[in-house]
Amino acid sequence: MLQYRPRQVQWLGLITVQSYTFKHYGLKHEAHLAAAQPPTVTVKNVLARELDAELVSDHRIGFVITHLGADANYLLVSRWMDSDLLHHRVVAFEREDSNWSRRREVPRGVIACVWELGIMAFERNAWIETALHRGGGADSRQDYLEAHFTGWI
């Protein structure tokens, strides 16, 4: 069994793809600390390929996590819809694939690892404190996009 060791969360800025704005976080397994996160253009290309059709009541904002894992590269895409629902998708890519184009099977039902869940918990609280508590208007959505996590998880 894997022993838990905190991992540093990198705030990588905002990414806009197909009129969506995503907050971008990066994580790395300890074996890949020297490796660079994929360039923004690579993440945009992957998002353009992987985004599902527009969701009903989609706010067109959310967050993505690129995780250089022990066994694969992972992209987690989360979008807010309605008032309080998070649409979520996990995609995995071959570890050696710097273009993130060779997909890898993700077991059905996988949501996130313990480190990714820490970022998701922050994002949940940020959504509540900005969009839900402040009425969901343009100002509250902007406040949500400006709130981000950095540090260890």
What can you see in these coordinates?
25% of the residues lie in helices and 35% in strands. It is globular and about 45 Å long. It has a seven-stranded mixed β-sheet. The chain contains three helices and seven strands. Strand 4 (72-81) and strand 5 (85-94) form a beta hairpin. It has helices at residues 40-50, 114-132, 138-146; strands at 8-17, 20-28, 58-68, 72-81, 85-94, 103-104, 151-152. It has one domain (8-152). The two termini are 19 Å apart. With 153 residues, the chain is an alpha+beta fold. Helix 2 (114-132) packs antiparallel against helix 3 (138-146). The longest helix has 19 residues, at 114-132.
Strand elements, count: 7
Number of domains: 1
Number of helices: 3
Ranges where pLDDT stays below 50 over 5 or more residues in a row are none
Let me know the average pLDDT: 91
What spatial form do the alpha-carbon principal axes imply? globular
Give a quick account of the main beta sheet: strands, pairing sense, barrel closure. Answer: 7 strands, mixed
The helicity comes to 25-40%
Q: Tell me the series of helices and strands, N- to C-terminal.
A: EEHEEEEHHE
- Alpha carbon gyration radius: 15 Å
Beta-strand percentage range: 35-45%
Distance between the termini: 19 Å
